[in-house]
Write a structure and sequence with these properties.
By secondary structure, the protein is mainly α. It has 11 helices and no strands. The protein is globular. The structure holds fe (ii) ion (2 copies). Residues 60-61, 64, 94-95, 119-120, 137 line the site of one fe (ii) ion.
């Protein structure tokens, strides 16, 4: 599990924040700002570059405001490979289009774009930065839902256990809402449940 190995100066992060926040719904700024704060804390805890984590967090929801039609236009513009389930779900699409915009408009390296790409669904074998952004999005200070405290605690004790917990909670939430969970989340959940089972047996 390598680290992203990128650093950004305070000045670069400030300019990123300025540009990205203009692309957000004003009501989403506290969430994105909280996500940045949490991502930096997690990066310090787990040995990732704090400024790389900050950059990924600042940009992670940069296309969230866009309509389904606008999301699809970006998919076309950047020729992003998408399956039918993704194409039918703007909630999932913002992660995909956000990663493409981070690359094309903000010239971010692949490691950072990938963390944006996987922040909503997760996937098996996530990098350290991908794990940090997935969890920071989930547990940042403005989040409030049953189980958030247990998830916060886990994120600072054992990253893979936190992922297993977060992914299973996310699956439950989707299923409770009557929807079919996305395949990447199902696969990610199985993968991290297996990892923590093996850890317990060793
Ligand atoms: Fe998001
Ligand atoms: Fe988010």
């Amino acid at each position: 599990m390598g680290t992203a190995g990128y650093t950004f100066s305070d000045l670069e992060l400030a300019s990123l924040r300025k540009k990205a926040w203009q692309m957000l719904d004003v009501k989403r700024i506290p969430h994105v700002s909280g996500c940045e704060e949490e991502a930096v804390c997690l990066a310090r805890r787990w040995g990732e570059s704090p400024s790389a984590a900050a950059a990924a967090a600042i940009l992670h929801d940069v296309t969230k405001r866009l309509s389904a039609k606008e999301q699809l236009a970006l998919v076309k513009q950047y020729a992003i490979p998408c399956d039918d389930v993704l194409l039918a779900s703007p909630k999932l699409l913002h992660a995909v289009t956000g990663a493409a915009v981070a690359k094309a408009e903000f010239c971010m390296p692949d490691e950072i774009c990938n963390a944006i790409r996987w922040h909503t669904t997760g996937k098996p074998e996530m990098t350290l930065l991908e794990k940090i952004i997935y969890l920071a999005d989930y547990i940042e200070p403005t989040r409030d839902f049953p189980g958030v405290d247990a998830l916060r605690k886990a994120a600072y004790e054992d990253l893979d256990s936190a992922l297993a917990l977060g992914l299973s909670m996310s699956l439950e939430e989707v299923r409770n809402g009557g929807a079919e969970p996305y395949i990447d989340t199902v696969l990610a959940n199985s993968y991290y449940q297996k990892i923590i089972r093996e850890e317990k047996n060793n």
